[in-house]
Structure formats: structure tokens, C-alpha cells
Automatic annotation (TrEMBL):
The keyword Nucleotide-binding applies. This is Adenosine monophosphate-protein transferase SoFic. ATP binds at E83, H217, D221, G222, N223, G224, R225, V226, G227, R228, Y259. The lineage of its organism: Bacteria, Pseudomonadati, Planctomycetota, Planctomycetia, Planctomycetia incertae sedis. SUPFAM superfamilies: Fic-like. The active site is at H217. GO terms for molecular function: ATP binding; nucleotidyltransferase activity. Coiled coil: none annotated. It holds the Pfam family Fic_N.
Length: 391
């Protein structure tokens, strides 16, 4: 539905002396109300069903924390790749076992900040803090606490004008609201999140809130990452998901051009429905593929367990090591020995047997400080992380 522009423009003078038109969005929800009938209603129900199935699939996993641990790291890598870092999941896991990865350390630190930011957001929700501007600022503060973000006012709404794409505001694709309007714009968004003026279906709320957040662009940097984190945080806050498991980064990157065009068309034409269709399709596909990944990981672990069990006497230790590798698919001997309560020589001989079975690979090629990876496991998690767009 074309409603016309979803905000007003306000002239602002930029640093270079030129006057540009900043866009100040109207508060949510859209007026006239969204058309949620026919095929769109079917899609909404399907997307909601897929999210509920994902919630169920993750909770029946033998160790759902393990899936969460890895899945959160996968998302951190992906979301940070959009921003421009070059880390991979293995780099992050290597960094976490304190082995220098093959990419600039700043890149891995940024990815690791993303993991901490999400963990922090979820714990704050569990402590009872509502999904609020305070929480978003805290998440932003951690997200940008190291690497290139540290100079971009972490944890604070911006105090200057920003713009999207283009070398200067006058050439920008889009100029977000002036900084003196941020309190009002973000206050209105917070009220919408808290069902004022009325309740909104959680997935619809997430769809609308994401666009509104990107339009307001309240931070100097990191708006894409915080806006993407808003979706799982909101679904957790609403009780739709027990764990933050739904990440749209793969989908948004794959359809990057369509995504940006739809953001623009909401602002310009008020076509919220086109955005909602795109968003719900992404939710459905993403939830289905996350549930499939959870199943594939379980199947792989079961199949490997069965093979290891046939090793005879050494099977007991090898199974303990295999169990730990699911928790940390990139690991060193010492922490494995501590976690399994086996001696280091026993861990080493178990790892050799797992290597013979093709379950693990040693990464360093050296003879000391060996690092082992549960390769197939990482491959399943890495699916969809390769760069490139479809549009
Ligand atoms: N017209 C537009 N073109 C491109 N991006 C837009 C547009 N409007 C809003 N955006 C949003 O701006 C985000 C980028 O903002 P910013 O650079 O502050 O975020 P980031 O987290 O540092 O980067 P990234 O999103 O690339 O990881 C995009 O992810 C997108 O969500």
C-alpha cells in the first residue's frame, strides 16, 4: 500500500555549509493500518510457525546451550562481515582459545564484542529490564567497545548529523533525523515496543521496529548491527523465542539490494507491506534453515558417536573428547584434558584416533601447542556464510 512519505523533512545545514533535507519519521504504527489479510496473513502465520518450530527444535537438542553458543558465534561473524571485518567462525573460535588467527586482531575483537553485546542484551532482559533505549545503548556500548568502534561514541546517541552513503550529506542516499530530534524519535519507538498505543503481533513489531531504527540511525556507527540484534532481542522479550536464535544477517546480505530499496520505499512511499512481505519471508527461511542446522549437527554428532563407540577399549576416552569438541569445536589439548578429567597423553591419543576416523583435523601442522577442529561440525555451521549476493 502506498501511503506517501512516512515522515517529514527538515532542512539542516551541514558542516560544508550546504543545506540538506533530513528525514524525521512519523511514529509507529503506520497510518492507515497495515493490510494483514490474504496471502500476507498466511505468510505471517507460516513465519510465526517456523519460529516456534525453531524454538522447539533447539530446546530438544541434547545440549541446547551448545547450539546456542555456536549459533551466536556464527551470527557474530556474519553480522560483522557485513560491516567489513574479515574474520571467519574458525578465527573467532581460535581467538577464544587464544591462538592468533590469520586475520587482523581488530577484526576478531570486533566479532567477539558482538557476542558479548548480544549476551549482555539477553541477560539484561532476563534480569527484567524491558527492551528499551537504555538497553540498546548498553548493547551498543559493548558492541563498539574495542577495535574501530571505540572512537564512535559507544553507548551514546549521536550528537551530530549523519548520512547514509555518499561522500557528504548533500550527496547522500538518505539523511536521518537531526540529532536534536533523536530523543523524541527514539522515545516514540520505545513506546511502540511497549505496545503504546496498542499491541502489535511480535513479528510485525520486529519488522516495523527494524526499519524505524535504521531510519532514525541514532548512533554514529553500528546502526546496522544493533538494528539486526533488535530482532532476536525483541522476540525474546516478547516470549516468542526462549533463546536469541533468529538472525537475518545471511538473508539480508544475500538480498542486500532489495533490502536497501525496501528501506527507501518505506520512507518515500510508505509501502510497509512490501517490506513486511520481504521480512516475513526472511524470517520463515532463516528459522527453517536454523532448525535444519540444529538437526544436521545432532545427526552428525550421533553418527560420529556410533563410529567412535566401535573403537573398543579406547572408545570411552575418545567419546569424552568428542563430547567436549561439540561444546568447543576448536580446542587445545590442555583445556580438553581439564574438561574431560583425562590425562593429557590420553587426550592426545584420543585426538589421534579421532583424526584417523576423519572426525578432527589438527590446524597448526606443528608439533607443540596443537589445535584441533571438529571440521564437519564447523562446516555445517559455516553454511551460508560465504560472501556474495543473489540480487
Ligand atoms: N538507504 C540505505 N542504504 C543502505 N543502508 C541503509 C539504508 N538505510 C538504512 N540503512 C541501514 O544502515 C545500516 C548501516 O549503518 P551503520 O554503518 O551505522 O551500521 P554498521 O553496523 O556499522 O554497518 P553494517 O550494517 O554494514 O554492518 C545498514 O545495515 C542498513 O540497515
Amino acid at each position: 500500500m502506498h501511503r506517501g512519505p512516512t515522515g517529514r523533512t527538515r532542512p539542516v545545514s551541514s558542516l560544508g555549509g550546504e543545506t540538506v533535507k533530513a528525514f524525521v519519521p512519523h511514529p509507529l504504527p503506520p497510518e492507515p493500518p497495515l493490510d494483514l489479510s490474504g496471502a500476507r496473513l498466511d505468510l505471517l502465520l507460516e513465519a510465526h510457525g517456523a519460529v516456534c518450530r525453531l524454538d522447539g527444535a533447539s530446546s530438544i537438542l541434547r545440549d541446547h546451550n551448545l547450539f546456542l553458543y555456536l549459533y551466536v558465534r556464527k551470527e557474530a561473524v556474519l553480522s560483522s562481515q557485513i560491516e567489513g571485518t574479515r574474520s571467519t567462525l574458525s578465527d573467532l573460535l581460535l581467538y577464544e582459545v587464544e591462538e592468533a588467527p590469520g586475520v587482523p586482531l581488530d577484526d576478531v575483537r570486533e566479532v567477539s564484542c558482538y557476542v558479548r553485546a548480544l549476551d549482555h542484551g539477553v541477560s539484561r532482559l532476563r534480569e527484567g529490564l524491558p527492551l528499551s533505549n537504555r538497553l540498546l545503548k548498553e548493547v551498543h556500548g559493548i558492541l563498539l567497545s574495542s577495535g574501530r568502534g571505540a572512537s564512535k561514541e559507544p553507548g551514546e546517541f549521536r550528537r551530530s548529523q549523519n548520512w547514509i552513503n555518499g561522500t557528504r550529506p548533500g550527496r547522500a542516499e538518505f539523511v536521518p533525523p537531526p540529532h536534536d530530534e533523536l530523543a523524541e524519535c527514539m522515545g516514540a519507538l520505545e513506546r511502540f515496543l511497549h505496545d503504546d498505543p496498542g499491541p502489535t503481533q511480535p513479528l510485525v513489531k520486529a519488522a516495523l521496529a527494524h526499519v524505524q531504527f535504521e531510519t532514525i540511525h541514532p548512533f554514529l556507527d553500528g546502526n546496522g548491527r544493533v538494528g539486526r540484534l533488535l530482532v532476536p532481542l525483541l522476540l525474546c522479550a516478547q516470549g516468542v523465542l526462549r533463546e536469541p536464535l533468529l538472525y537475518l544477517s545471511v538473508y539480508l546480505r544475500k538480498h542486500r539490494r532489495t533490502y536497501f530499496e525496501l528501506l527507501q520505499s518505506v520512507r518515500r512511499d510508505g509501502d510497509w507491506e512490501a517490506w513486511l512481505d520481504f521480512f516475513l519471508e526472511g524470517v520463515r527461511a532463516t528459522a527453517d534453515s536454523a532448525a535444519a542446522a540444529a538437526r544436521a549437527l545432532t545427526d552428525l554428532a550421533e553418527a560420529d558417536r556410533a563410529r567412535i563407540a566401535q573403537l573398543g577399549r579406547p572408545a570411552r576416552s575418545a567419546l569424552l573428547v568428542h563430547d567436549q569438541l561439540q561444546r568447543r569445536p576448536v580446542a587445545k589439548v590442555k583445556p580438553l584434558a581439564l574438561a574431560t578429567q583425562l590425562s593429557e597423553p590420553t587426550v592426545i591419543s584420543s585426538l589421534r584416533r579421532l583424526e584417523d576416523l576423519g572426525v578432527v583435523h589438527e590446524l597448526t601442522g606443528g608439533s607443540r601447542n596443537l589445535v584441533y577442529a571438529y571440521a564437519r561440525y564447523l562446516e555445517i555451521l559455516n553454511e551460508g556464510t560465504e560472501q556474495g549476493t543473489e540480487d
